[in-house]
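Justification of resources, computational component.

The compute hours requested in this renewal are based largely on the per-chain cost of generating structure records like the one below. Each record pairs the submitted sequence with a full structure-token output. That output is archived, and it is also reused by downstream analysis tasks.
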Amino acid sequence: MAAGEPEAFTIYGWVVCVWVLIVSFQYGFHISSLNQISGVLTCQKTEPGLPSTYYGLPTCIPMDNATFSVLTSVYTVGGLLGSVGANLVMDRWGRKGACLASAFIMAVGAGFMGVAASLSPLIVGRLLTGVAAGLGLCVGPIYISEIAPVKIKGAVGVLTQFAIVIGIMVTQAMGLQLATPRTWRLVLLFSSALSLAQLLVGPIIVESPVWLNRRGLLRDKDASARRLWKAGHAVHSPDVANEDAEDPLLGNDDESASLNPARRADEHEAAATVPQVLLRREFRKPLAIVCFSMLCQQLSGVNAVLYYSNNILSKALPDLGPYVSLGITIVNFFMTAAPIFLIDRLGRKKLLSLSATGAIASLVAVGIGLDSGAVLLASVAIITFVASFAIGIGPVPFVMIPEVSPHQAVSALSSVGLSLNWIANFLVGLVFLPLRDFLSHGDTSKEGRVFYVFAALLAFFTFMLFGLYRG
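The structure output for this chain reads:
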């Protein structure tokens, strides 16, 4: 390691890291925020003798299953909108500014949902939380990568997925306790309050040194580096003439350097736009890597498993009901912790390889188990699939985006990649049950066939990714 490179965060640096991770937490939180409270929210579960209002607000909002599905899917539409415009916000107002924008939109959106008295504000609020999550999911990994010390960059990058999983787990746990006509709104108001707290803390948070350097704000960059990193005192940019000098604290690891040999020369180029990233030859390889990594993540079928785990496991665990999803999320939580310690030791590509192999084998086992009536096999395979996903396919793509992207294109590539992620997420949720029914021809003993499709898709896109990504 070169002299002067940051080896660790200061305490303040960890505070900034946690502050940034709130946007990823909120994304995970709202993936599942309506799952556990759906019954009381839609008036399908009521308490005898309960007044129709509580503190001036209705205790539920009547809607049928189709309407609730629309309410749920609006989150994905908002996420796509947020991701599409994220690069413009990140490049104009900085990484910190984009996080603050995400927090503000999330506070308003979750607040709307928490005090909604009818369907319309509930849908508007859900859309806004999606926009905030889409923006946050783009800026979070980039911000984290740019402030992380080189020695622990991979481990810190994994924290993005870790925060997402914690968000899912927290909302499911809260839903189990607060899924009553009087208290379901607290789940949503908690999210709004958390974003408000993030906004209040915002003034003490520093901007990314990398973004400040690109804007020519060298003294601000130096001040930011000193506060974030224990080796920050080594940074010195006394005047603009020093702008192009080699800065060891902003050096790159071997992985990113191998893909971006001209990265230092790129630092002061104008930020690339999404059309430029899609059309210019020099961006084709990083664009393909980002897109294939996102497709591996979503077309593995993981969200189908998470969305419909109760349906899949109902035969094996008929009495546990809502605890099934929480149990899967807890497995996801513990297994996502493993890459924090493994990613810099094993490398990105090896971790992805192990993860994909385990996930493909598990998907095949789920299909065999469901088709043969071996419910226990299917149940165990679902758990091993989630565990396999969590150690690589889940967290590594978020680490890869800023590492494989040229500096001037990182925001645009993130927008393209995460937009594709949202689209694939939406399509998997939309087609999973119809595809399952089509392939099984209505025969419940053949419902496992759909998992062979996901296994094949994951194998194909993993092969395509490894053909380009050296790791």
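Strands lie at 53-54, 57-58. The two ends are 19 Å apart (CA to CA).
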